[in-house]
Amino acid sequence: MSMEKTKQIDEILSGLDGVQRASAPEFFYTRLKARMEKGFEPAMVRKRVLYPVYALAAVVLIMFINAAILVTKQNGTGTDTASVNETETLQSIAAEYNINDVSSLYELNEER
Amino acid sequence: MGLREGDESAFRYLVETYRDRVFNTALGIVQNAEDAEDVAQEVFIQVYRSISTFKGESKLSTWLYRIATTRSLDLLRSKKSKKRFGFLQRLFGEGNEPELEIPDFNHPGIQLDRKENAAKLFKAISRLPENQKIAFTLHKLEDLSYQEVSEIMKTSLPAVESLMHRAKQNLRKMLEKEID
Do A32 and B44 touch (CB under 8 A)? Predict the structure, then answer.
């Protein structure tokens, strides 16, 4: 960096040297008293207005995720390995206990 | 004592004594006169409401500076949130007003021949991390010693020295880019 630039930056960094304190506006106390009597809420409280926006944004995000999952399922074969294995397991359990069809359940009930 | 009893003349005396310090501190951080007045009013309202909690372990001025810096940062964060809200509104097709350019800040206490440089410096200060911003503003604008700044920020003297060093480094980097 050139000497000229360094000097320029040093000058800017000294820009607050000798600064005079700013005075509060006229009638500051009068306005303060009026505000206290009216019971104004501080500006920070107005922030609560923004909370519904965040909730709405969260809902929209969840909807997007749901839609993305639905679209993926529809576009895919729907026979991913995990669900196939699960189906086979359930079918084998059903076969073992002879509950492959509803009619066998009714037979069991009749026997009772 | 009069303050704790809610004595108005005591409160008025407090306000008249410290209003410029509080206003100037807020002004240096929020860089807008209207907002600074808002913040300054909130500081004194908070003092009025919570004077009973002031234990006198530190000076009254230390307490006031602390509230002023906290409130100023709260306002800045609140403005940032509103900016994000405006972005969301535009995203959903509402609020199509163009984003306003924040004008350069001119502190009234700066001499005429230094105004341009001071404006550049304040712009860079506005981009500092919060702690560095506070330390730098209190030291430069309120002419407080590092010791006094450490009491206000409830931190150690070496920590303030470090904050100031990093603040100056960051300001230098920002100004280098600005000049380029």
Answer: yes
